[in-house]
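Example 3.2
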Amino acid sequence: MENPTPSVRLRGVGKSFGGVSVLRSVDLDIMPGEIHGLVGENGAGKSTLGKIIGGYYSISDGTLEAFGRPADPWTPKDALDKGIAIMHQELQLVPELTVAENVFLGIEDQKLGVLSGTEKDRLTPIVEATGFEVDPSAKIVDLSIADRQKIEVMRALARNARVIVMDEPTSSLSADETQRLHETMKKLRASGGTVVYVSHFLDNILEVCDAVTILRDGDLVRTAPCAGENKDSLVSAMLGGGRSKIAFPDKSRLKERQSALEVRSLSSTNGTREASFHVNRGEIVGLIGLVGGGRTEILRAVIGADKSTGGEVLVQGKPYGDRSIAESNRRGIVMVPEDRRKQGLIMTLAVRSNMTLPHLSSFATPFGRILAATEKSRSREAIEHFQVKPPDVDGDILNYSGGNQQKVLLAKWLMRDPEIVFLDEPSRGVDVGARQRIHEAIAELAGRGTAVLLVSSELEEVLGLSHRAYLVANGKVFDELVPEGKTEGEVLRALFQLQQRFPEASAH
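Structure, written as tokens:
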């Protein structure tokens, strides 16, 4: 039997931005009826390669074929017309439209140019196929990041594409939702469809993919069957050399327990309910809970992003009322948000401008003139410290990988040695190499005496970094635990026991 024609074939493909090469001489066949993984460090080129397949980037060198025919010209519309859809890592949704309207945007039913309004009915089989529970009438602007990610997945499925490129589709999904998505991928494969699965979750790649392609610094390392790979072999290939295991940095020892932040019975309009906890100087404290359990809402209530309805916050032992983002920043209390595009970075500005925007007064003369040389020097130091790639202070942030955007976001808020730092999913969409640098930066912060409050959906991250942690559900803070010696399984069991003790905690 002859070998089938590849769904996508790349030969000698390269891509450059502004003279900077991000992909070089990539040869790759992606076959029909295959789930094909793309892995690599942030900046390795995997998302760029996915966007080339989906028509969002043109190639600088080489050739691209789709279903045996040259893909030239190749735009998102050309790709979709040929049966290739892409769901982006940075969500491409219209905030003021409903779930159903976003899923079928551009492919609505119509008659004589008049929309038929059938989107809700058409959404039903997609909801059933994925198992995602969503309100078709809800506006995107009112949804969490996790729910928006589900909509992006359903939007790709609605195109009935023969190839779907999924760029980090599980970064905000729970373990159960990830399993449902994997089942959907397998159904697509069984029907002859192809999935290109871009992910930094290597366990997910190994679980569901037939083949995997590993990229490093823009070069293709190898393409191989997943059956012959394991997590260590993938990490070693991604990083180069023999480094295969990523260890967490040593936790700093607390010389004295000096309170930096104390929260007493705090409630808010966003669902925080009588939350109480404390963080000492030089301590990393984690909030552990399920997606949607209220961890982010607690951070926002404490820092003043959302209005409080009860309770109090003490900073350095003194009451802090009338909280606001601006006043918190003035006091040295900062928050690195979960959504880097919507809340963290200005995508039309350069790297330097993003980093220094909150700190311009420290680079200005008494008459308000910005000292550009000082600003550039501080930005360059931050870029080197966080190992941002490419290391260009005036680089266009829009063209950086998600992981390097995340490093810029962290550098932005950590540039002036804050007293208290809230970290909401600091390694979301970040590969193992970039994650290690971020973890080192967090440990360095604590070592200098900064109080850190950490939210992460990855239990391993919270346990590996935190001195102490609290279980959170339904907007409330429950049991305190010491992560040292605890396994992920033990913590999950504690969460389940919490739900049994407090039935209202299972609402999320």
